[in-house]
Write a structure and sequence with these properties.
Length: 131
């Protein structure tokens, strides 16, 4: 499996459960490991066979600008589902952390790992529940 990674991506966003967190942007750090849909890029040297890092970063910036999440877990899940669905990745690991929010703690966060199979199972379950 071929994996691309994006480490130490920092951005400001509104996230949290407290009233002040709904108005004061916080710095978060995002780390991603994303499986490529195929290994063809190694031989072809063509971006069409790879994942475009710039498009992934653009999509994450869009999510951060247009959504407010109460929990880091929800943000990580949204990023994972978006990458799996929109970029056809079979697997992703997402880490999201708040930086310097608690005295004495450099960062605190969550790490999740998802597969495209898991997304299909969730959609099937939702369809059954809504039927």
């Amino acid at each position: 499996m071929d994996i691309i990674f994006l480490h130490d991506f920092k951005a400001k966003t509104l996230i949290g459960i407290y009233p002040w967190e709904r108005i004061v942007p916080q710095t978060i750090q995002i780390d991603l490991e994303i499986a490529l849909p195929t290994s063809h890029a190694c031989q072809s040297d063509n971006i069409a066979d790879a994942l475009d890092y710039a498009l992934i970063i653009e999509k994450i910036n869009e999510i951060l600008a247009t959504h407010h999440f109460s929990l880091l877990e929800a943000l990580a899940e949204h990023i994972a589902q978006t990458v799996l669905t929109e970029f056809q990745s079979p697997w992703i690991k997402v880490s999201v952390a708040k930086l310097g929010i608690i005295r004495g703690v450099k960062k605190l966060g969550v790490r999740i790992e998802r597969t495209s199979d898991a997304i299909s199972e969730i959609r099937s379950h939702i369809s059954l529940v809504n039927s």
